[in-house]
Design goal:
CATH class of the largest domain: Alpha Beta
Strand content: 15-25%
CATH architecture of the largest domain: 3-Layer(aba) Sandwich
Keywords: Amino-acid transport, Signal, Transport
Domain Leucine-binding protein: 37-391
Protein name: ABC transporter substrate-binding protein
Radius of gyration: 21 Å
Family: Belongs to the leucine-binding protein family.
Low-confidence stretches: 1-31
Helix content: 25-40%
InterPro entries: BCAA_transport, Leu-bd, Peripla_BP_I, TAT_signal
Number of domains: 2
Distance between the termini: 34 Å
């Protein structure tokens, strides 16, 4: 249920090799001739599906930007390695890239909250680079403690905030939080409890599970005993969250289930529906972005759709680009704005200069990833909306306006 085998060898080969690079003007970065953006992705291990679905975004983005003339005339290139979702592996990848490419490396894309926290103390002096990642960890959205790390969406606490506001607006009274026993899973739980109390919602269950291989019957029994109006699932990627919902439906529960970004991938929901039936009907969750099929007034999404049709022909991504890859695209476009603004000012692309350029991104149209103009505040974009899945149409459609927190 959780594996997606690409039918075109070049997609996974390109993901594993992951060669792509960013460049900037030669007078700003002596003898470089290009910008290199490094990345670590879980191309193997428990979250390999996510890594393999994100990886094609890098090669496509390289082509898009270089076809546009690069950044102030300098080509970009990516260098991607497998981390296996092990923070120490990702850190070693980062250090190895700096050792081999030096000042050509202007930024890095990390694979997890664990890596972003581990690399933080390393980002000093000539070892500092701008960083973005797959993570929406709340503690990273703090320029004072993490000045070189940013995210292209709301933190996990923000996402819980949006969902709880939506639950209260729909007349919900009781809510359960079921989360994985990882940093990813526990991140928004305490803040969510406080926000629920503020909104007059009663949290009737807080349940921790394994991120993979969870004891589904036991956890479903606890949800049934609490019988909440709503249940928010947090800290899962490909497995557990649909199994919990399926178990609850078999139990006869009418609880409405909701998820955050990593539990909102259409490919996963479609595969579950095809294999196990329509029990995800009505499942809701928060997304920072439009889905790739929602291209009206979204020129960047139109561009991604057109290039995917050709470059990814014969793969599951030919006609739909996953939300996890859209996150990477949005992050890279924010980074590109910072790089271009920095180049226009004639400054070297140091981490300090790029952080300052990042802070100038206010009320910007990012090309349609978001349904509104965005600003980078506290190294995040605190915007999202609630979507609902239809097992019949196999689409997620919005059920709320865009909210900024």
């Amino acid at each position: 249920m959780t594996k997606f085998n690409m039918t075109r060898r070049s997609v996974l080969a390109g993901a594993a090799a992951g060669t792509a690079t960013l460049g900037m003007p030669a007078y700003l970065r002596a003898m470089s001739g290009e910008f290199i953006i490094g990345a670590s992705l879980p191309l193997t291990g428990p979250f390999a599906t996510a890594g393999q679905l994100i990886a094609p975004a890098f090669s496509l983005y390289e082509k898009i930007i270089n076809d546009e003339g690069g950044i102030a005339g300098t080509k970009i290139k990516f260098s991607t390695e497998d981390s296996g979702y092990v923070p120490q592996n990702a850190l070693a990848n980062y250090q190895r890239l700096l050792a081999s490419e030096g000042d050509k490396v202007v930024a890095y894309y990390g694979d997890s909250t664990g890596f972003m926290k581990l690399v933080g103390p390393e980002l000093k002096g000539d070892q500092a680079r701008m960083m973005t990642s797959t993570s929406f960890a709340t503690e990273l959205a703090n320029p004072e403690t993490h000045p070189y790390q940013f995210m292209s969406g709301p933190t996990y606490e923000d996402q819980f905030n949006i969902l709880l506001q939506d639950i209260a607006a729909k007349g919900g009274k009781t809510v359960a939080f079921v989360h994985s026993n990882t940093e990813f899973g526990t991140d928004p739980i305490k803040a969510g409890q406080a926000k629920a109390a503020e909104l007059g919602l009663e949290v009737v269950l807080v349940e921790s599970t394994k991120p993979q291989g969870a004891d589904i019957p036991t956890h479903v029994t606890k949800i049934a005993q609490a019988n909440p109006d709503y249940c928010i699932l947090q800290g899962y990627v490909t497995g557990v969250w649909p199994q919990l919902i399926g178990g609850a439906r078999q139990f006869g529960l009418t609880t409405k289930f909701m998820g955050t970004f990593w539990g909102m991938e259409k490919l996963i929901a479609d595969r579950v529906t095809a294999e196990a039936g329509p029990f995800l009907e009505g499942y809701q969750g928060v997304m920072p972005y439009r889905y790739s099929y929602d291209t009206e007034n979204a020129p960047r999404l139109q561009q991604i759709a057109a290039i995917s049709k050709v470059a990814l022909a014969g793969t599951p991504l030919e006609n739909y680009f996953p939300t996890w890859g859209i996150q990477a695209f949005a992050s890279l476009d924010i980074l590109t704005i910072a790089l271009r603004r920095n180049a226009e000012m004639g400054k070297a692309p140091t981490a300090d200069n790029l952080a300052a350029a990042l802070a100038t991104i206010k009320d910007v149209d990012l090309g349609g990833y978001f349904g509104t103009n965005i600003s980078v505040e506290n190294n995040k974009v605190g915007t999202g909306r609630v979507y609902q899945y239809s097992a019949e149409s196999r689409l997620f459609t919005p059920t709320s306006d865009w909210l900024t927190v």
